[in-house]
# Entry
Amino acid sequence: MSNVKALTGGEAVAEAMRQINPDVVAAYPITPQTIIMQKFADFHADGLVDSELVRVESEHSAMSCCVGASAGGARTITATASAGLALMWEILGVASGLRLPIVMAVANRALSAPINIHCDHSDAMGARDSGWIMLFSEGGQEAYENMMLAVRLAERKDVLLPVMVNLDGFITSHGVENITVYDDDKIKGFVGEISANKPLLDIKNPVTYGPLQLQDYYFETRSQQIPAMENAKKAYLEIGKELSSITGKEYGFVEKYQTEDAKAIIVAMNSTAGTTKAVVDKLREKGKKVGLLKIRMFRPFPYSEVMEALQNTKAVAVLDRALSFGANAPLFGEIKNSLYELKKRPALFSCVYGLGGKNIYESDVEEVFKKLSKKELGLINYIGLRE
Amino acid sequence: MNVKELALKLEKNKKLIAGHRSCSGCGFPQIVRAILASTDKPIVASCATGCLEVTTTIYPFSSWDIPFIHSAFENSASTISGVESAFRALKKKGKITEDVKFVAFGGDGGTYDIGLQSLSGALERGHDFLYVCYDNEAYMNTGIQRSSATPLGASTTTAPAGKVHKGKEEFRKDFAKVCVAHNIPYVAQASVSNLIDLTAKAEKAFSIKGPKVLLVLQPCTLGWRYPSDKTIEIAKLAVESKFWPLYEVENGKYKLTYKPSKEVPVIEFIKTQGRFKHLLKPENKMIVDKIQENVNSEWEKLVKLSV
# Structure
């Protein structure tokens, strides 16, 4: 029986981890701290999971330990945020390059300097080319469900890539919502048991992980991640369908919210998608044809699905909670790429907002829609930024 | 164990097989073979980036006839702690039934410097593994750069002997003491020149549960600059001159496992190597004296601790 609980997003992720009951969880609690590991440690202390919980001395070691555990054949999960993800950066590429199905929750937060512990997507965007599948979550419920989806997706034999489940730091990770927690047995049945690919701990069949590959092989090996990423799209839809039978929800690469006849569409990720939905509802009541395109999967990026969703609209504003100094903001760049093949493209605007946790209010989103409808936005806009 | 028994044992247990591309005269193949032959149990190895890893795993070949993982430079210890945790998890679930030993290898750079935090964490957490540092006293794989294991006076590419600066200006880090301070059950220093001592230490280490550290001196023909047939001779001089004492610390108790029978001044060790060539000039004698004084005082401390 499913059960509605008042949980923070971090606790919801921990709840998913309890139900998944991974073999190994290696994590460092700080830089900055999230509730995920504390809550999971409670489950561990009370014997509700039988995972090996490795309290490492840094995020670099957290990811290194996950690499060792996953290579060993264990189902492996970790969680981090901000500077912690940045510290892991070197090993993120090792995890994907060794094709290890590690799952990691990331409570998205700003990077230093100046030091700041609040929400933005700079951490995840800094890791976007590290070869990880990246899912984003509107709220705690999606983060919870993405965790189980991620485990299956990572371990699919035609994928074998690590998966990052992103949720907004503080806004989602520390905000309490009503979370529907599905029946333990159903989730257990859905995630099943890991069937590891050539595990290191298959003692009778020794394998060498992480050899030296020079000019003659490196490119060939690295390029095998390209079809794996491609396969991840099909796998995601198939696994999402299976998860639907438990949750009744749909798991698309994107969520189209009132986009069908919309003249103006905002593209957003994570919790701002929720804020935008509220504004869309309000403006629709007033007869305004506006909509939201929420990006759920950022890597692999769903270019054709985005193009399909935006092809009939007049104007699009892309909300980015991260910067790429000297270049297009990360999500904006991808949306622009998605539209290239259209003969008739909508007007496209970049809106950067909310760095370091600066609030974005419904009134801000409403303002974007208002200007967007009149195409009064600049090409690049900074929402809420004081002069 | 005598030399003949050791030779038979190493011949029977070649888990690092031929075909690797380490330099002629390199000491680590013997070290690794001796370590891997020191347990009858299945063994899984991790290795830091460095000479050992790059010369033994050139794709599509591997010299490792055991499960082997290399992840990065600074994380051999945290990587093996993950494998060992996976082992415990899978054993608990009955997915693995056999007893398995775990060993992590790293050079001195990957151990004393960039890998120190990861090793310290793994030791403190009490994982059941043996960490082996093959210590050639500099970053040899990348072109002989100074590490915190480089001895005073040695010329390296990043602390070369010049007109003003005469090579490394600091003493090497006493890493065994760093490990001992973690209160782990076993820490030892060994040398490639005494494989019977090395094997005895590795066997003892594998028989103890928990984290163990073995620091093995391994002269490097390129970095120390000497003819490739002199590796064992030079390693022996390091031991005989007390520059690299052989000892172990079991549960905090120090024990010298070899006491040189006659006095060999450290200059005898120094003069065999190109990295110390400048120290032979009369104006640099004070550096040699400083090294000798340090060797003497460290040895005295060790003797006192070993009572």
User: Anything to note?
Assistant: Chain A touches chain B at residues 23-24, 26, 50-52, 54-58, 60-61, 64-74, 76, 90-91, 94, 98, 200-203, 206-214, 217, 221 (CB under 8 Å).
